[in-house]
Amino acid sequence: MSAYIIRRLLLIIPTLSILTIMVFLAVRFIPGDVIDVMLARMVEQGADGGEIDREVLERRLGLDVPVHVQYGRWIGVFPTRDFVTGESRFKGLLQGALGQSLWGAHFSVEEKIIGRLPVTIQLGVMAIVIGLVIALPVGIYSAIRQDTAADYAGRSVAIIGLATPNFWLGTMVMLYPAIWWGWSPPIEMIPFTEDPLGNIGMFLIPSLILGTASAAATMRMTRTMMLEVLRQDYIRTAWAKGLRERVVVLRHSVKNALIPVVTLIGLQLPILIGGSVIMENIFSLPGLGRLLLTALDTRDYPMVSGANLVFATAVVLFNLLIDLLYSWLDPRVRYE
User: Fold this and answer.
1) What percent of the residues of the chain are helix, what percent strand, and what percent coil, each to the nearest 5?
2) CA angle, corner 244, sides to 240 and 248, nearest 5?
């Protein structure tokens, strides 16, 4: 097992290397650049954009060099110029830094991400927990009560959950309760250390929306795999021995049915990340997703690249964890 984990961790290095190139280049394909946004902001504030020397601004921000040099500076193989002192030094990914925001020399990308990351983690964890709490019991019960009213009800709810866009549902939750009853979810961040119940209540609705969307697919997969396992010979033997239904289902069926379900949960993580970006903006949660959209709007290249890299790394590590869970769920799975 340890040798397998080491190999997988080593394989993450080339994967993340390719991802750094992708996240670095992706934002630069967006029409317009950060200089255009800055000039537009200056004009909005009453300044004369024609008085700004674009070349000087590009040189100050480090955008006056080719893209491959900018990438080398970002990962730390080329020296980068400090915005304030003008000194050149090696400071990039290889040195544990994600760069500086183009909108302020005192805005360190890694510090901004670390400050926003707990909000996104809490939202994602609560969404996953809510999704599993809904999906697993409903999927298992629907399988053992196949073609009953409960089964049809569970399948119908799953189809509705799959067909309902979470961004639309989140917008409706924000809009109609405010119109009908004068109530809206809290939009000001409540720290957990100050008010734990208020903090959980603030995250409950967006995480419930995200968790319900993921629960629909998970429930259908759980039901399908449970039906397949319940038709196996060893399950028939367990029934023939007179074992109670609870023992047959929980001890002999569930773990064997969960491997494809766990795989599906791993595949849903990118969808949850995309959903968290939307939910954080709808419900005004100061998380990494909201930071990413703000950085995209202002063309803050280092901030966008850093946030995307964190999301991509989370997906890679989460899928490694999913692979390791297989050996616990099925003793026949061995990693060498």
Assistant:
1) 75, 0, 25
2) 75
- 216/136 Cα distance (integer angstroms): 10
Handedness of CA 233, 236, 238, 244 (dihedral sign): positive
Q: For tokens 């899928």, name the residue.
A: 319
Q: Which helix (H) or strand (E) holds 171?
A: helix 166-180
**Per residue of the chain (336 residues), what is the pLDDT tens digit?**
677 778 878 888 888 888 888 888 888 888 777 887 877 777 777 666 556 677 777 777 778 888 888 888 888 887 776 655 666 677 778 777 887 888 875 678 888 888 888 888 888 888 888 888 888 888 888 888 888 888 888 888 888 887 888 888 888 888 888 888 887 777 778 888 888 888 888 888 888 888 888 888 888 888 888 888 888 888 888 888 888 878 888 777 887 788 888 888 877 877 788 788 888 888 888 888 888 888 888 888 888 888 888 888 888 888 888 877 777 776 666 666
In the three-class reduction of DSSP (H, G, I as helix; E, B as strand; rest coil), residue 125 is classed as helix
Tokens of 32: 């317009």
